[in-house]
Design brief:
362 residues, 2 domains, 10 helices, 12 strands, 32% helix, 19% strand
């Protein structure tokens, strides 16, 4: 026969919430006639009398909160904190549960058992683990390569804001004349290729024998694929027009998203572009794709108020489509002056887009 103890209603509710049999409580009661109070029970738990933070049993939750007297605010807080009202003792009029009762219960670790159903473990500092995803395969390869890049190559970043007022109508004109539509990325790709031909030191890699500068531009286009980030490469991109780049990169991107890329289609890049504009990202920096010495991060196009200076020197404010581009370079190979000239030339070409349509531009 289990022993009986005198215990206050609040202490009994706490014991029920913690899955503790009141008869098992060995605590000196400080309540009326030696009854165990909530304070006594908490002290007993903290002294090692029971495992703290136990989930509420199914019996404690049975019947739901509909039959419990509680204020609207208390109910709202209980729902937000995951506290079952059936396990809370009310201190209000006629035992009604008020805000403070719920907060005290939450602080004591009272919570629904369902909240613990998907927890598979707890970290040493108290974080509850819902699942563990293996760090392996493509994700680990990507992580290892990017870590090597970040901690081996000193990164330097250069940002320019680009006005696409002239590019937008040109792109609309081109798209109206053909079935396959060009994207802003296609024009940026062309601008990057042309700029790499102007500044060949950017089309390079640091190898064991020295800095290798390449005769052709193999342009990588970073793509989020099912297995992780992958960079299909458009080979000899300097031979392609904007429309040609659009077709070649589009086919590779489709294959990447379907997981059908051949190894030779994502190897041999000399420079990479990474576009997150379609996700509304306004600015970001990209980690170099080794052994390349440069990567261009492309952000979203946003309408912004811009100060425009007329030929006579007068200034006005206009709303224009603006975009941020950020160049990351390997500072072991690329100096700041070269990087600044490179990203500024990309900006100039995008703001004078007719030059992009001249295929044999040198």
């Amino acid at each position: 026969m289990s022993k009986k103890i005198k215990i206050t209603p609040r202490a009994r509710a706490l014991a029920r919430a913690r899955g503790i049999d009141p008869a098992a409580v060995d605590a000196r009661g400080t309540g009326v006639q030696g009854g165990v109070t909530e304070k006594d029970l908490l002290a007993w738990i903290e002294a090692g009398g029971a495992k703290t933070g136990a989930a509420v049993s199914a019996e404690a939750v049975a019947g739901g909160a509909a039959d419990v007297r509680a204020t609207s605010l208390a109910r709202a807080i209980a729902a937000a904190r995951g506290v079952p009202l059936s396990a809370v003792s009310g201190s209000g009029s006629y035992g009604k549960i008020v805000r403070e009762d719920v907060l005290n219960a939450a602080a004591a670790g009272v919570r629904f058992a369902a909240e613990e159903a998907d927890v598979i473990g707890v970290t040493p500092d108290g974080k509850r683990i819902a699942r563990i995803v293996p760090y392996a395969g493509a994700r680990k390869v990507i992580g290892d390569r990017l870590s090597e890049s970040m901690f081996t190559a000193p990164h330097l970043y250069f940002t320019q804001k680009v006005d696409l007022s002239a590019l937008s109508p040109l792109r609309e004109l081109v798209n109206a004349k053909q079935e396959r539509k060009t994207s802003v990325t296609d024009y940026i790709a062309r601008a990057v290729v042309m700029t790499l031909r102007t500044y060949p030191a950017m089309n390079a890699s640091l190898a064991a024998a020295g800095i290798e500068e390449y005769a052709g531009v193999n342009l990588g286009v970073a793509v989020a694929a099912p297995g992780g980030l992958i960079v299909p490469v458009v080979k000899e991109a300097q031979t392609l027009s904007v429309v040609g780049l659009s077709k070649a990169s589009g086919e590779l991107i489709d294959k990447a998203r379907e997981g059908k890329l051949r190894p030779d289609e994502y190897a041999g890049g000399t420079f990479t572009i990474s576009n997150l504009g379609m996700f509304g990202i306004e600015n970001f920096t990209a980690i170099l794709n080794p052994p390349e010495v440069g990567i261009l991060a492309i952000s979203s196009v946003k309408d912004e108020a811009v100060v425009v200076k007329a030929a006579d020197g007068a200034k006005t404010i206009e709303i224009r489509p603006m975009m941020n581009i950020t160049l990351s370079v390997d500072h072991r190979v690329i100096d700041g002056l070269l990087a600044a000239r490179f990203v500024t030339e990309v900006k100039r070409l995008l703001e004078s887009p007719l030059e992009l349509m001249i295929r044999d531009w040198t």
